[in-house]
Amino acid sequence: MAQWVPDVLGDEFEQCTLPLGEDDQGEVVATLVRALPEVAQPVSGWERFVRRLRGRPTTDAPPLLDGVDVLYVHGWSDYFFQKRLARFWSSRGARFYALDLRKYGRSIRDGHTPGYVADLRTYDEDIAAALDVMAEDADTSRGPRRLVLMGHSTGGLVLSLWANRHPDVADAVILNSPWLEFQLAPLRAAIAPVVELQARLRPLDAAPQIDLGFYARAQAEVADADDLMEPNPAWRPTPAMVVHAGWLHAILDGHRMVGDGLAIPVPVCVLLSARSVLPTRWSEELTSADTVLVVDDIARRSLKLGASVTVERVDGALHDIFLSRKQARDDAYARLERWVTGWVRSRPAP
To answer: How many CA atoms lie within 13 A of 42 on its CB side?
Structure first.
C-alpha cells in the first residue's frame, strides 16, 4: 500500500516513494507526486429546493475532467515543481500525478550518477510502478478512468516511446517541447556510431559542458513576482547535469526510433515555441524563444508519432512552454484547454 507524505511543494501536494530495487550504484527509487481535485460538497436539501424553484438543475454537473488521471514526466536535468500546471488539471476535476524518474530530483540517492540510464526502456519500471499506485488511488465505481500522459523535453521522448510500446494504456498524449530530434540533425548519422562505441567502452565518460546558464536566466527574467517558481538548485542545477556517453547513446537511439515512425494510437498534442534561438550570448531575445531545441525540426518530427497529431506553436514561449512570460503562458494554457475540451467531448467517458 502506497505511503503518501507531505511534499516539498507544500499546500495540497503529497509524495510517495516507489522502490525499484538496486543497480550497481545502490538503491534505486522513483518518486510520485500528486495533487487531487477538491471533493465537491453534496447539495443540501434546501439548496435543491431553491434550485427547483428557480428552474435550475438540482444536482451539479461533474467537472470537465472528472474520471481523468494525468501522469507528467519531466525533462533532462529537471524534476517536477510546476504547481500551476498541476492546478490546471486538478481544478478541472482530474487527478494529477508527476513522476520524478530514478536518479532525478526527489529520487536522487547518494552514489547516483544524476539522470543516468543506458536505455530509455529502463523507465518502463518507473512508469509501471507509478501506474500501480495510481490504480490503488482510483475510484472506479463509475467506470474505468482515462489516462493522459504529459511529458516535457526528454520526458516527452520517453513517454512517446512508451505509449508506442503500450498502445492500450493511455487515452491521450500531450507533449511540451518534446525532444524528438537531435539539435544537430544533419550530423546525427555521423555522430551516432562514435557515441555508440564510446557508450560500449566507457559509458560514464562525460561530454563537454555547453550549458552557459542562459536558459535558467531566461526563466528567471520572465517569472511572475507574485507567483514565483523556485526550483531546488540541487535538483535542477545551473549549468545542467553532466551528459554521459551511455545516456546520450540511449537518447540518439530514441530519436532514431521516432524517425523510423511510431504508431501511437490515441490523439497527440504537441506544444512548441514559435521559434528557436541559438544561445551563444545573452540577449533579451532568449526570453521569448526555445534556446534548447530546433522547434521546426521537432514540429516535423512530431508528425511521425501517430495518425492523429496536433501541433500548437506558441509565440514568445520558452523551451518549457508553461514557464514562459505570462502572455505566452496564458496562450499555451488556452490552447491546452481548447485541445483537452475537444478531446473530452469527442471521446465520452467509458
So the answer is: 3
